[in-house]
Design brief:
heterodimer, A: 189 residues, alpha+beta, globular, B: mainly alpha, 4 helices
Chain lengths: 189, 105
């Protein structure tokens, strides 16, 4: 067995610590760091190694303001964001039936998760935004008809905020709650 | 109420964009997200208003916005508390409406 590339317990602890961030400082994010995040998206799993998605990095505050106006799920104005978009032209050339093939969506998720983890590793805060008008965001960014925005990852240096504590919030879902061993409903190993 | 503008055309357009985008995504989002969008729209409207002079309602607007912003993400993790929060807001605004009406009389 080859030596592990990264300590598994450290990785799990790191994953457990990651949280969405909706409050950012005004400090700019260096392009080299954004490039690292884009590369993390590239190295996510991709069905059939097809890579049907494009990552559009937006740093222009004026554009970000307009994107936010079309994105009810964007609760704050970030210093930078990345739009993950499906390249439908490429999908067609790969004979992928977008409307029928869910793997396209799954690949958006794997790229997004890799990017979020890389952002955390850098020390950046990030938050996914899926509640936005696709037509509105496409118009703001001048997307061609064949490029469909699917997911927005907002990024920035986190601003410390006091978390609102709720006394009536239900118990947090655990990994055990989500995991069955062999048979649906069986949580025991 | 003082006859003065509390939104520029651009700010109003920003709110319109938010509302029409919310209407579109409300066709497929969970129904309870609708209440969140409306409360968030109120917060965004107040954020724009606060860029202007608000001699009559400034204090109230600041308090209500802070109250909403503190609690609006509760919808994601504590639905019963979210509903209670929603129930409390109209009375706050009604009280301010009454106060403003009295000032204007």
């Amino acid at each position: 067995m080859s030596a592990p590339a990264i300590d598994a317990d450290s990785l799990l602890a790191f994953m457990k610590k990651r949280r969405v961030c909706r409050s950012f400082t005004d400090a700019p994010v260096d392009d080299d760091l954004l490039w690292k995040i884009a590369q993390a998206g590239r190295w996510a799993t991709s069905a059939g190694n097809r890579h049907l998605h494009k990552f559009v990095i937006v740093r222009d505050p004026a554009k970000i303001k307009l994107i936010r106006a079309m994105s009810p799920g964007m609760l704050t104005e970030p210093p930078v964001l990345i739009v993950i978009a499906t390249d439908e032209e490429r999908a067609a050339s790969e004979q992928v039936q977008i409307e029928l093939d869910d793997s396209t969506w799954i690949d958006v998720g794997t790229a997004a998760m890799n990017m979020s983890l890389m952002a955390s590793a850098i020390g950046l805060g990030s938050c996914p935004v899926t509640s936005f008008s696709q037509s509105g965001v496409s118009e703001v960014l001048g997307f061609p008809q064949s490029l469909k925005p699917e997911y927005i990852l907002i990024l920035g240096w986190p601003k410390p905020v006091e978390r609102f504590a709720s006394s009536t919030a239900p118990k947090a879902i655990t990994a055990r709650d989500l995991t069955f061993w062999e048979t649906p409903g069986n949580h025991e190993r | 109420m003082a006859e003065q503008l509390v939104l520029t055309e651009r700010e109003a357009l920003d709110i319109i964009a938010f509302l029409v985008a919310s209407a579109e995504i409300s066709t497929y989002e969970p129904t309870y997200y609708g209440s969140f969008r409306l409360v968030d729209a109120a917060s965004r409207l107040m954020a724009h208003m606060q860029k202007h002079d608000l001699p009559l309602t400034g204090e109230f607007i600041a308090e209500l916005k802070a109250h909403i912003d503190e609690k609006k993400t509760m919808m994601m993790f504590d639905r019963p508390a979210w509903v209670e929060f929603l129930k409390g807001n109209p009375a706050l605004v009604a009280s301010e409406l009454k106060r403003v009406a009295e000032v204007e009389e």
